[in-house]
């Protein structure tokens, strides 16, 4: 009995749950035909799906692929696909797959269906597939749209019937998932408002929806006078509105394309479209496009190219050219703190039509404008005392160093900042983080640290209910208090409030890891790493632990090798080497931990680590035992 998994990756498992070797493109054909009403497609269609063009080269590639598929099917004793001279057909598909809902409209219990949909769709469909065909990208987008429609249909039906606490919690989880994918859906707004109204949390959502509606209105107005704006030189257009604008300079840095060969995308037109989009918004203004593009082409580090008093944010856009179209990586950097506050990768396809460029530009502008406006409203609190804002930034930098002395220094800076702005939500949430991180670094020795973290997180939420910071920190304190379901729910809300924020995605991954869902945690943390290529050590630590608990010990060590300060992962290094049978290497890390923490005790430490399920502690315990950490008596039952 074989099973096919398409969400969070693509793999075929045998009856024992082991991954069966099969060509990736062969599995992609299998998925395509399982979703086709006729379960059949022409060879030319398959060639276009896999390689973009039905030319001689694609046909040669297809013949080679067919030969490999036939050999693997023979070895497995199962004919999934049948080939003729002109067509490919579904023969005997896997008995089980996670595509159950795609063609199913059964009349089963609506809450059971919704629960299964949420579990399936919380990871990306065909994530990480190495297929750069524009036909594939379009087909995958169509399928993802169908998946979202199925989720919305089940959500609307369930929302009308939800009464009990469990049903309401499920509807809320599904609504937040949809909100993150399609934040402009008005039906989902109504569902969320109804649910959060019952809990007294409705006002901040109303404000978010109002802001999004205003952004959409501004974008629509842009179409009316776009022709009046000379692209790249429109900073002071419509001067009658400048008095109400947030004075934000956003250099658009079009960095050099990297990797691969292919048709050049019309990047200058895309920058024009984004420039016009920002000029259209009443609340923002941007810097001269020509200056920005010239700086980007110089290849210099963005934050170092503008005078510190002449910049606020930097939008970096980098194209990676692929055989079948470019991939656009965009990230918004707060120039004062050099913090990445938004990032996204967008597949552009082979063409650069005006309609497609407008869609990409609209997506970028609307995502960024909300982030910038919220950040500027917070920054305005320190306009009369810039020294306090500098204290806040200094505190943020200390937090990143992840040592107890640096966390204590961060608290000192943040406390000074809060003397002027006691209700500054980012400073309050950063205070919460200093306490929760110190609790982790001191092995949970002082419960009062978590109490302080939760108190500051709640103060941050009270100060600003429409930003993610407080919810993010509250979610992490829930993780450490072993309230895994509450932590994931709170971090989903934070991610919905600030989509594309790599740090929040990474914290959500850590919550999933401690909720004993390392597979989902690894998928999510890899997304955070992709959005922030210079990933903090905390991202890599989460990825290493998730890999370890999945039994991927070499992958765990690979993540640790990428850390700037690998000492933070000495325990997982020791356990990984021990599980691989390298006792001498494991012993090196054991001795290093014992020099740093001579009183380290495995059982006491594992009782503090907030894993939800015992199996996750057991595999960690086994690795530490094999490595040579062992001070506890056998058969101790852990909390």
UniProtKB/TrEMBL annotation:
Q: Which GO terms describe its biological process?
A: regulation of DNA-templated transcription
Gene3D superfamilies for this protein: Tetratricopeptide repeat domain, Winged helix-like DNA-binding domain superfamily/Winged helix DNA-binding domain
What InterPro entries does this protein map onto? Sig_transdc_resp-reg_C-effctor (IPR016032), TPR-like_helical_dom_sf (IPR011990), WH-like_DNA-bd_sf (IPR036388)
Q: Which UniProt keywords apply?
A: DNA-binding
Tell me yes or no: is Secreted among this UniProt entry's keywords: no
User: A single Gene Ontology molecular function, please?
Assistant: DNA binding
Residue ranges that the Swiss-Prot or TrEMBL entry lists as coiled coil:
none
State whether keyword rRNA processing applies. Answer: no
Q: What is this protein called?
A: DNA-binding transcriptional activator of the SARP family
Organism whose genome encodes this protein: Rhizobium hainanense
């Amino acid at each position: 009995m074989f099973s096919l998994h398409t969400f969070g990756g693509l793999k075929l498992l045998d009856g024992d749950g082991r991954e069966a070797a099969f060509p990736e493109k062969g599995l992609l054909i299998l998925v395509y035909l399982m979703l086709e009403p006729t379960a059949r497609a022409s060879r030319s269609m398959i060639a276009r799906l896999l390689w973009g063009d039905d030319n001689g080269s694609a046909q040669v590639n297809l013949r080679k692929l067919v030969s490999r598929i036939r050999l693997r099917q023979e070895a497995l004793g199962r004919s999934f696909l049948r080939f003729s001279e002109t067509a490919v057909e579904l023969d005997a598909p896997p008995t089980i797959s996670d595509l159950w809902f795609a063609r199913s409209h059964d009349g089963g219990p609506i809450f059971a269906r919704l629960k299964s949909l949420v579990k399936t769709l919380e990871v990306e469909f065909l994530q990480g597939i190495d297929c750069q065909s524009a036909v594939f990208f379009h087909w995958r987008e169509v399928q993802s749209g169908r998946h979202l429609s199925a989720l919305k249909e089940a959500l609307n039906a369930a929302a009308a019937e939800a009464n009990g606490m469990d049903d309401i919690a499920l509807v809320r989880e599904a609504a937040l998932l949809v909100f993150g994918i399609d934040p402009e859906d008005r039906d989902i707004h109504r569902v969320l408002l109804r649910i959060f109204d019952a809990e007294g949390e409705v006002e901040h959502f109303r404000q978010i929806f109002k802001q999004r509606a205003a952004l959409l209105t501004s974008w629509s107005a842009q179409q009316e006078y776009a022709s009046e704006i000379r692209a790249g030189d429109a900073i002071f257009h419509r001067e009658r509105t400048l008095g109400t604008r947030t004075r934000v300079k956003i250099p658009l840095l079009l960095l050099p394309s990297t990797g691969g060969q292919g048709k050049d995308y019309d990047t200058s037109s895309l920058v024009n479209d984004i420039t016009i989009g920002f000029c259209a918004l009443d609340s923002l203004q941007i810097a001269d496009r020509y200056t920005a593009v010239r700086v980007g082409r110089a290849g210099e580090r963005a934050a170092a190219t503008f005078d510190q008093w002449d910049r606020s944010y930097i939008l970096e856009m980098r194209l990676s050219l692929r055989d079948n179209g470019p991939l656009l990586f965009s990230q918004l950097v707060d120039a004062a703190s050099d913090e990445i506050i938004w990032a996204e990768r967008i597949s552009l396809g082979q063409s650069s039509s005006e309609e497609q460029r407008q869609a990409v530009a609209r997506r970028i502008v609307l995502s960024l404008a909300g982030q910038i406006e919220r950040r500027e409203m917070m920054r305005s609190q320190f306009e009369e005392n810039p020294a306090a804002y500098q204290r806040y930034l200094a505190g943020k930098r200390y937090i990143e160093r992840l040592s107890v002395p640096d966390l204590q220094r961060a608290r000192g800076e943040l406390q000074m900042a809060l003397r002027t702005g006691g209700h500054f939500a980012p400073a309050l949430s950063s205070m919460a983080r200093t306490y929760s991180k110190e609790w982790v670094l001191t092995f949970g020795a002082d419960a009062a640290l978590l109490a302080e973290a939760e108190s500051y997180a709640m103060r941050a939420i009270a100060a600003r209910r429409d930003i993610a910071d407080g919810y993010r920190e509250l979610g992490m304190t829930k993780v450490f208090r072993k309230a895994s379901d509450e932590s994931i729910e709170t971090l989903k809300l934070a991610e919905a409030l600030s989509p594309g924020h790599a740090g929040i995605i990474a914290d959500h991954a850590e919550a999933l890891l401690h909720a004993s869902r390392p597979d989902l945690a690894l998928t999510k943390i890899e997304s955070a790493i992709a959005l922030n290529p210079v990933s903090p050590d905390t991202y890599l630590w989460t990825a290493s632990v998730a890999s370890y608990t999945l039994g991927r010990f070499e992958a765990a060590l690979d993540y640790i090798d990428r850390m700037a300060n690998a000492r933070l992962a000495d325990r997982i290094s020791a356990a990984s080497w021990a599980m691989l049978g390298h006792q001498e290497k494991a012993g090196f890390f054991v001795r290093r931990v014992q020099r740093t923490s001579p009183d380290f005790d495995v059982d006491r430490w594992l009782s503090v680590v907030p894993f939800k399920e015992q199996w996750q502690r057991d595999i960690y315990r086994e690795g530490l035992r094999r490595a040579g950490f062992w001070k506890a008596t056998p058969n101790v039952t852990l909390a």
